[in-house]
Every structure is written in C-alpha cells, then in structure tokens.
C-alpha cells in the first residue's frame, strides 16, 4: 500500500486527462471482461444439457426460437462467442492501459535519474556505479510490474472471485460457497506465507547480484590497471565468488518456487474435488444435471486462473517492492545542498570572490579548513599551493557549493553564495579539473557540453583557441570522432584541451583551474599552459596548483598548510620570505634540473614528472571509506 501511495500520482497524473481517461476505460473493460468470463461456464452448461437431452422441448409455433437457442449447436456457438468476447475485452483493456503503465515507468525512472544528480558529491563518492545501475534497471522493471499487477490483475481477480461466489450461492447452495471460501482462504493464506518466506531469499539474490555487477563494472573500468598487474585471474576469482553467492541464492529461490507452486496446486485440487463431489451427489439424487457438473468444473478451473494470478500478483508485487526499495530510498534521500527559499539567480557584475573566515570539515572531528580568508579581485589571478591534503581542492568544491561551509561565508560580488540558486552559481564558474573525464560520445558533443546551444562554428573556434582544432581535423571523422569510455581514446593532453575548449565555449566570468597540468609532461604542459593563460585573460581566476612554475605570474599566491593559509604574496615576495613556498620551489627546481641533465645526457628519465598524488583530502577519503563500510 505504501508503494501504491508513492506511485499513484504517476498512475493518475492530474495534468494528463488523456491518461486518466484510459484508466477509466480500462476499469470499465475490467468489469465487462469478468462478466463475460463468468458467463462462459453457463454457456458450457447449456450446451452440455442440450447434448444430454435436458433443456430440449417439443417444436411448436410458440417455442421455435427457444428450441433453436437450446440446441447443442447454438449453445456451442454461444460458448465460443463468449470466450471471444472475454478475450477481446481483456486484450483491449491491456492495450488501452499500456500507455498509462509505460508513462508511469518513464516518469518515475526519470525523476529518480534527476534526483540522483541533485544529491551531494558525498553520495556520489560513496556509491558503486555497477550496483547503482542494477538498482535503476530493476527499479524500472518493478514499476511496470507493480502498475500492471495491481490494476490489471489484482483488481480483476477480486471482481471474479466475488462474481463466482455469488453464482455458486444462488445457482447451487451454501455448501458450494463454503467450499469456495475455504479453498480461496487456504490458497491465499498459503501463498502469502510461502511468498514471505521467499522474500528473504530474494533479498539475498538481489544483494549478490548487485555485488557481482559492481565488481564486474569496477574491474572493466580499471581494465588497464588489471593488465598492469597481471591480475586477470584475481579479478576473475573475485567476480566468481560473488557469482557463487548469486548461484546459491538463485538455486534456493527456484526450490522455494517449486514448494510454493506444489502447495498451491494441492490446495486448489482438494477444493475442486470437493465441489465436484457435491455436484455428483446432486446428480445421483436428481437435483443437478450433467451440465451442472460440467459447469462447476469449468467455473472452478476458470477460478484457478485468477487465484493463481493472485498468488503470482502477491509474489511479483512483493518481489517488485524489494526491487524498488532502493530506488525509493534514493528518492527519499534529501540532498545535502538545497536552494534556500527565495534564492535568486546570481548576477555577476565584476566577479570578485571573497572567502571570509571559512571553516569546513567532512567529519566534525577532522577539520579540513580553519578560518581561511582571502580575496580574488575581478580580473585577477590567485593561486593556491601547498602539500597534498592541505585542503586545496576542498576550496574549489566549496566555491561550487558541492559542500556547505561549516563556518564563515563565501561571497561573489558581495553576495553569499548560499543565497543564490545553485544553477546560476555554477553557470558563472568554469572548471578545468586535474582529471578530465569525458562522455563516451564524440569530440563535438564533449566540447558543446560547455554551452549546448552553441553553433558548429563556435565549437570549432573554441577548439582552435584550446589548440586542439588541428588534431581534430587530422582524425578520420573529425569532430565526430568517438572519444571512448571516460575519453580513454585520447591522450592526457588531448583530454585537457577538450576540457579547456569546453570551458572557453561556456565563457564564464570566473575560472577555476584545479591542477589542470599536473598530470602532463613538460612539453605538453607548456602548450596547455599557454591555452589556459588565454582562457584566464580578463577573468577572475582561482588556480589550484602543484607545479609552482605554472603560477609564477599570479597576482597573489596563497600557501595552504593543514587547512590554514600560512603564507601569501607574489612569487618574488614568497621566495624572499624563505618559508614553505621557497622550500617547495627549491625542491621542484632541483627535480627539474635533474630531469634536464638526464635529457641532455640522453638517459631515460628515472621517474614520472615530480608531482604529488591527486589532491583529495585524506579526511574525505576516511569519511568516504567509513560511509561505504
């Protein structure tokens, strides 16, 4: 019932009169089809009585029509006609209701998809993509099952059971009704008990299926890593362990299904035999005809179908509810970040950014930022440097409002970003991340993602400014070249240029560069840095950097350590100060000189370009691991 309450707005959408009309018509057809269904055994009885000589009458001028209708041939035609009417009405009902059911599937699945994009970054760091896709897939199937079973099976079944009980009471006597009631009660009781028993098995099966699917996708997404470490066997064993649990749960599910079906058949067969014994006794004593015997058999067999459907309906609905539980859990999960009531769009005039005594912690006991304050003047560039785990990337996430500050405030042109809509805030900020992940589509699609209504010429101009147009033109398909899963068909530099082109096309007044060149070689870095400098010109720019050589021209450099700004100034001022920045600069210069010496002597570089791991805060990793556990 709770599931039906959740789904009713999708089955009976207030704004769609055409769909509501379909529901009404389908309901009328349900009753008409069940009346025809109950009439079928009567025509069978009349045909049988006609064949046995009961119901025939001498032919006379006053009873020719009655005689004609009572002949075996006419009654057989009537029997066939009623079965045709029953089938046509039932199939018409299903056809008319199909639009309602599939519309509910589409709308609810789309709402879930939209809601997942509203959820916080924390949710998406904790989730497993493979398991989540299975939740969505089974949820879509469960929606259709519930809609069809509740309205097209359960409702008609109840109507048919009531009609059959009424017919047996008035055409025969109370003993037949008692047999039917006892059969239905025992049948449904056994079905409910056995189905509840099977639900635990179904949950185990779903859990192991999710786990196996998540491991498969995780392994395939990390295909290269698996190859690097020759871990194919280990991955296969890991996947097989999950599939072994799924196999065990599936076997138990099939065995429990046979127990359920066998018990249902036994209960119904006993009820059928009891009703037929009563009728046979009546025939022996002249109170019933052979047609009655045939009728009671046909009616009971006909009743078995909706009763079997009722068992299946309950079983399928309960299983569908299990399948849809996770989807509703996602829908009921509130986003951590929501627009405040009355929030207005951000109107960027100059693009000044201010962090005013900002504090933040992923977990209360582990503070990441501690009273951080700085300004980025309109059109100026401010760089943030520091050791890994100092909180650099957290600053960009707070600016995008992926998380809410726990203290202080962030302002753009004097407005607290918590008072504006998230969509307008993010529309005003362009991002070139350290790890660019592209959609598995064309280069054109990925560049146009920056501004969807851009023309082809604007896309090509953005690519030219990002210095990737020449590469694109030399590919066989040009801008229609597929980039592959996560853009893996492109090199790191090519992906970064696509990200830069995407940001150029977006044309934001504020730009965030989050270690955009840290994963590139020196030659590619210089080319990308030139493109980034052009993008940043006349824009308010916040640069999060590890390679200090990329930010020597910044208007101000902030040195972050353990969540606090420990130094600030220009490149020359910080070198003269001789503090943490100067130490970092000297280490990087020594590493650079060593590489240059190796290149001059023709020896192979002993290691990758000097850089720290991706700047994901350790506290965030701990929080994510705790949540996943």
Quickly describe the structure.
With 629 residues, the chain is of the alpha/beta class.
Overview of the molecule:
- By secondary structure, the protein is α/β, with parallel strands linked by helices.
- The protein has three domains: 2-332, Up-down Bundle (ABC transporter transmembrane region fold); 353-428 and 509-628, P-loop containing nucleotide triphosphate hydrolases (Rossmann fold), CATH 3.40.50.300; 437-507, Rossmann fold.
- It has helices spanning 2-11, 17-52, 64-70, 72-118, 121-126, 129-171, 174-221, 223-228, 232-284, 290-332, 392-399, 422-427, 443-448, 456-465, 469-473, 492-506, 522-536, 571-577, 580-601, 618-628; strands at residues 353-363, 366-376, 381-385, 407-412, 415-416, 429-432, 510-514, 540-544, 556-561, 564-569.
- The strands form two sheets. Strands 6-7-8-3-9-10 form a six-stranded mixed β-sheet, sandwiched between helices. A four-stranded antiparallel β-sheet has the order 2-1-4-5.
- A hairpin with a 2-residue loop joins strand 1 (353-363) and strand 2.
- Helix 4 (72-118) packs parallel to helix 10 (290-332).
- The chain is elongated, with a radius of gyration of 36 Å.
- The model is unreliable at 55-61, 63-67 and 604-629 (pLDDT under 50).
């Amino acid at each position: 019932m709770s599931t039906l309450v959740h789904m009713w707005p999708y089955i009976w959408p207030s704004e769609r009169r055409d769909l509501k009309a379909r529901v009404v018509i389908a309901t009328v057809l349900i009753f008409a089809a069940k009346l025809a269904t109950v009439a079928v055994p009567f025509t069978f009885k009349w045909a049988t009585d006609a064949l046995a000589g009961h119901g025939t009458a001498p032919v006379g001028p006053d009873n020719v029509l009655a005689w004609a209708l009572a002949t075996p041939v006419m009654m057989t035609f009537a029997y066939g006609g009623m079965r045709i009417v029953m089938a046509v009405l039932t199939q018409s009902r299903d056809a008319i209701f199909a639009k309602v059911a599939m519309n509910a599937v589409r709308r609810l699945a789309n709402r879930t998809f939209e809601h997942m994009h509203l959820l916080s970054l924390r949710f998406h760091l904790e989730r497993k993509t493979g398991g989540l896709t299975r939740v969505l897939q089974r949820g879509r199937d469960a929606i259709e099952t519930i809609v069809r079973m509740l309205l097209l099976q359960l409702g008609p079944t109840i109507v048919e059971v009531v009609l059959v009980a009424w017919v047996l009471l008035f055409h025969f006597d109370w003993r037949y009704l008692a047999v039917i009631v006892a059969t239905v009660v025992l049948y449904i009781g056994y079905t409910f008990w056995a189905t509840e028993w099977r639900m635990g098995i179904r949950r185990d099966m779903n859990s192991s299926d999710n786990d196996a699917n998540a491991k498969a996708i995780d392994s395939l997404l990390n295909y290269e890593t698996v190859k690097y470490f020759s871990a194919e066997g280990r991955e296969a064993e890991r996947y097989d362990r999950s599939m072994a649990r799924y196999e065990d749960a599936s076997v138990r599910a099939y065995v429990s299904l046979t127990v359920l079906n066998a018990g249902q058949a036994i209960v119904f067969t006993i009820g059928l035999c009891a009703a037929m014994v009563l009728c046979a006794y009546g025939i022996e004593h002249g109170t019933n005809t052979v047609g009655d015997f045939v009728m009671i058999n046909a009616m009971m067999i006909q009743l078995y179908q909706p009763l079997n459907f009722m068992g299946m309906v309950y079983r399928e609905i309960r299983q569908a509810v299990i399948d849809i539980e996770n989807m509703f859990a996602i829908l009921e999960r509130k986003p951590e970040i929501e627009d405040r009531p009355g929030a207005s769009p951000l109107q960027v005039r100059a693009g000044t950014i201010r962090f005013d005594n900002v504090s933040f912690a992923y977990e209360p006991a582990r503070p990441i930022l501690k009273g951080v304050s700085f300004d980025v003047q309109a059109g100026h560039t401010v760089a943030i440097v520091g050791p890994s785990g100092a909180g650099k990337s957290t600053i960009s996430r707070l600016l995008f409002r992926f998380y809410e500050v726990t203290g202080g405030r962030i302002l753009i042109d004097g407005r607290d970003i918590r008072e504006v809509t998230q969509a307008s805030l993010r529309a005003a900020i362009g991002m070139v991340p350290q790890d660019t992940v592209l959609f598995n589509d064309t280069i054109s699609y990925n560049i146009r993602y920056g501004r969807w209504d851009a023309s082809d010429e604007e896309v090509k101009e953005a690519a030219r400014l990002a210095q990737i147009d020449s590469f694109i033109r030399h590919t066989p398909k040009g801008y229609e070249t597929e980039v592959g899963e996560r853009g893996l068909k492109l090199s790191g530099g090519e992906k970064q240029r696509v990200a830069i082109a995407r940001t150029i096309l977006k044309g934001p007044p504020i730009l965030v560069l989050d270690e955009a060149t840290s994963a590139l070689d020196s030659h590619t870095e210089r080319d990308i840095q030139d493109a980034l400098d052009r993008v940043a010109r006349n824009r308010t720019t916040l640069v999060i950097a590890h390679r200090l050589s990329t930010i020597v021209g910044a208007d101000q450099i902030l040195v972050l350590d353990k969540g606090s700004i420990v130094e600030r100034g220009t490149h020359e001022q910080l070198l003269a100060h001789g503090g943490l920045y100067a130490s970092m600069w000297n280490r990087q210069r020594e590493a650079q000189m060593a590489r240059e010496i190796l290149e001059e002597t023709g020896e192979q570089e002993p290691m990758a370009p000097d850089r720290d791991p991706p700047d994901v805060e350790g506290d965030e990793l701990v929080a994510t691991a705790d949540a996943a556990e």
